Amino acid sequence: MSRKLFVLLVALMSLSLIGIIFVQGYWIKTAVDDKEEQFSNSVMQVLKSVSDKIERREIEDYSNKFLQLIDSIGEFKEAELREILFIDKDEENNETFIYSHGVLEEDYGISSTFFDSESDSIPIKSFNSKRRTIIVKEGVDIDGKVTYTPSERIEKIGGMSAIDKAHFETYFRHYAKRKPIRERVSDQEIQLLLQRELSEAGIDLHFEYGVYGNGLATKVRSRDFALSESTRYKVPIFVDEEGKTDFDLLVTFPQKKKFLVSSIMGMALLSIIFTLIIVIAYSGAIHQLIRQKQISEIKTDFINNMTHEFKTPIATINLALDAIQNPKVLEHRDKVRQYLQMIRDENKRMHAQVENVLRISKLEKNQLEIAKDALDIHDIIEEAIAHVSLMIENRGGYVHTHFEAEQSEVLANEFHFTNVLVNILDNAIKYSPESPKIDVYTETVKNNIVIKVQDQGMGMSKAVLKRIFEKFYREHTGNIHNVKGHGLGLAYVKNIVEDHQGVVYVESEKDKGSTFFIKLPLI
Question: What domain of life is recorded for the organism (predicted)?
């Protein structure tokens, strides 16, 4: 995959993910806003209902007192009857309709002092109505005379409730305005009505209330009521016939936001969980894409390095074979043996590289059987140094040992652990631009022995340190192959050490050398 295509894919996937997160956030915000609007509408309906019930209760209280007073007086003092008559004739059916409507006005002699009013010029009266419908059938008798026979009579007698109510309320509203608010409504009434109405509306939420008159707080309020613009709702109370009032009922919900959020919490949590799953899956996919791209690059580097390292031995073998085929060389046995030894060494070198690749593969598949015996780690270090001593001498360097560990017996495989130390020493030699200067230390730390291999080479950057033990990884040096290797040595080291229940790590600084640490459990 080309770099441009890879970047484009990552950009598109990132844009899609950001879009999903944005849509989810917008959906949650919209849901909260919708719930808030629905909540506000329900609360306003509740407050309007409470206001109406308080006003009706107040009017009913005075109506009952008025009716009780009428009952105590008994007979009315004077009455006046007014009647309306209306006649209609249906020619097709020969029927005549006679409508009559009478209104009886009863005066009980109750003045407006019932309302504690200063004026006594307003009489209080009661009205009753009588409605009659007569249907007369027109016919002809035996003598040919026209006759009228009543066929149906309908009578209704009732009170003029609408008139009574309007008449009574007009007086009452003027009187009630002069009463203190605490005499018109109590804290307990508001509390009970709000609780009942809110419960019926499905709003089970703590509330505080207060009645304000002309914008100022009154004593009719709950104990913890505090005016808050964001959580308060207002409705007028005790409205007069002109639609005006001096009082407002205010209700606040301190836990309103929490209530609204909790109402959509279930769906919001599911949305967040699924979004997180998408984010995690996306992150994992991006990580795998980047890792696969890195592995692809590393493998390409590995193939290039292996090709380069195989190319030199093959060329050397070919040159040796060509030299042996020369008749002049055949006459000199020493020359022939020298060229044969070169062929054997180069072949062994290529074989060792192939074995390294196969060994790493077996280690990863847990197919490599490693038998362990009780060994002295100092002996293994000496043996590993012997393997690289010739290369160090040729470079004019040295390896100094500092065996300070009092106990040095470990359970290890001699062959593989010798290779571990050889690989580390070989790296120290390779990455020392000048004469390699290597010091090997051992010390006992609790029940473990720590082996420290310190060089004074070119060192490593922090970025390289993070990946130094990855398979096929080598520090990029362009197309220069002045350092032999194929990125398997330290991966092999890590696998073998961990198989011995040990730990390997490195400390390094650019241009100041590196120090490898191996920690193994003692027997």
Answer: Bacteria
> E strands along 160-287, which residues?
208-213, 216-221, 232-237, 247-252
Indicate the average pLDDT of the chain. Answer: 77
Strands of the sheet with 232-237, listed across from one edge: 216-221, 208-213, 247-252, 232-237
User: Taking a C-beta distance cutoff of 8 angstroms, is the pair 340, 372 a contact?
Assistant: no
- Please state, in angstroms and rounded to a whole number, the distance separating the CA atoms of residues 471 and 298: 9
521, β-bridge pairs: 448
Across the range 383-389, mean pLDDT stands at: 86
What pLDDT was estimated at residue 380? 92
pTM for this prediction: 0.43
CB-based contacts of 255: which residues, under 8 Å, 6+ apart? 205, 206
Query: What is the per-residue pLDDT across 82-122, written as a single tens digit (0 to 9) for each?
Result: 566 667 676 777 777 676 666 555 555 555 455 454 444 44
Helix (H, G, I), strand (E, B) or coil at 98: strand
Do 124 and 109 meet the contact criterion of CB atoms below 8 Å apart? no
The b-or-e profile of 8-19 (16+ CB within 10 A means b, else e) is: eeeeeeeeebee
CA dihedral 53, 252, 199, 244 (to 10 degrees): 20
**Long-range Cβ contacts of 60-68 (<8 Å, 24+ apart):** 62/115, 62/168, 62/172, 63/168, 65/114, 66/110, 66/114, 66/124, 66/168
Q: Of 361, 387, 412, which residue constitutes the final position of a domain?
A: 361
Phi, psi of 231 (to 5 degrees): -125, 10
Round to whole Å and give the CA distance between 194 and 346.
Answer: 97
Residues 447-500: pLDDT tens digits? Answer: 999 999 999 888 888 888 888 887 666 665 444 344 444 456 788 788 889 888
Q: What integer pLDDT is reported at residue 482 of this predicted model?
A: 46
Q: Residue 481: what pLDDT?
A: 42
Residue 323: the pLDDT is 83
Asked if residue 398 belongs to a domain, the reply is yes
Specify which residues 504 forms β-bridges with.
Answer: 518
Residue 207 domain flag:
no
Whether residues 427 and 501 fall in one domain: yes
Tens of pLDDT, residue by residue over 24-59, are 888 888 888 888 888 888 889 988 998 888 888 887
Total domain count for the chain? 2
Question: Tokens 């090997």, residue?
Answer: 440
Q: Is residue 399 part of a domain?
A: yes
Position 410: which residue type?
V
Cβ atoms of 126 and 70 closer than 8 Å: yes
Element holding 95 (H helix, E strand):
strand 95-110
Contact 220, 187 (CB under 8 A): yes
CA dist 252 and 259 (Å) reads 13
Among candidate residues 226, 242, 234, the one with its CA nearest the CA of residue 51? 234
DSSP assignment of 376-396 equals: EHHHHHHHHHHHHHHHHHHHT
Q: Does any domain span residue 375?
A: yes
pLDDT number for residue 517:
95
By the 8 A CB rule, do 358 and 399 touch? no
Assign residue 315 the CATH number of its domain: 1.10.287
